[in-house]
UniProtKB/TrEMBL annotation:
UniProt-recorded name of the protein: DNA-binding response OmpR family regulator
Keyword Protein biosynthesis tagged: no
Residue ranges annotated for the OmpR/PhoB-type domain, each copy included: 1-97
Transmembrane segments: none
Organism this protein belongs to: Nocardioides massiliensis
GO terms for MF: DNA binding
UniProt keyword list: DNA-binding, Phosphoprotein, Two-component regulatory system
A Pfam family assignment: Trans_reg_C
Region (Disordered): 92-114
Residue ranges flagged as DNA-binding region: 1-97
């Protein structure tokens, strides 16, 4: 399954960004898998806790944030201006199906590292 330039093989538990393999820890992969399978949808924190950590209680409200930070860093997604996984304040997280609305291809190319 591929969304934007992130490809995930759920059976082999492997991930690539722009054709380059990205090594993820078990929970990082599980978090990404839940989000990418529901790309374009908001996934609540409660759903993530249940599906990734198999728990209905919050052992730490920062668990998701810490793992999300690691996933964003490994995928090269700027946490200040994320293009892959966005936070919908008060609702949850969403793996975006495309670049944020209003962002032009030219603007993305200007920001791309050379």
């Amino acid at each position: 399954m591929t969304v934007q330039d992130v490809a995930v093989d759920l059976e082999a538990r492997r991930c690539w960004r722009a054709g380059v393999e990205v090594t993820l820890a078990r929970k990082e992969f599980d978090l990404l898998a839940v989000l990418i399978q529901r790309a374009g949808e908001i996934v609540t924190r409660a759903e993530l806790m249940e599906q990734v950590w198999q728990t209905t209680f919050w052992t730490s409200s920062k668990t998701i944030d810490v793992h999300l930070g690691w996933v964003r860093r490994k995928l090269g997604d700027d946490p200040r201006r994320p293009r892959l996984i966005t936070t919908v304040r008060g609702r949850g997280l969403r793996f975006e199906q495309g670049p944020p609305a209003g962002e032009s291809t030219a603007a993305r190319q200007l920001e791309a590292p050379h």
